[in-house]
Amino acid sequence: MSPRAPAVAAVDFGASSIRVGRVELGPDGPRLSVVHRHAHGPAADPAGVLRWDWARLLAETEKGLAAAQEPGPLASIGVDTWGVDYGLLDAHGDLMAPPVSYRDGRTAGYAAVVSRLGGAAALYDVAGVQLQPYNTIFQVAAHMRAERDRARHLVMLPELVVHHLTGAIVGERTSAGTTGLVDIRAGTWSAGLAAGVGLDPAVLPEILPAGTRVGTWQGVPVHLVGGHDTASAVAAMGVGAGPRPAFVSTGTWLLVGREQPDPDLSDAARAANLTNEIGATGGVRLLKNLAGAWLLEQCRPAWGGPSIAALIDEAAAVGDVPAARLDPTDARFLHPEDMLGEVTGALDLSRDTPPAVVTRLVVESLAAGTAGVLAGLPGAGPSDIHVFGGAQSALYRSLLAERSGLPVHAGPGEATALGNALVQGIALGVYADLADARRHLGEPS
Question: 104, 229, 264, 384: which is the annotated catalytic residue?
Answer without folding.
Answer: 229
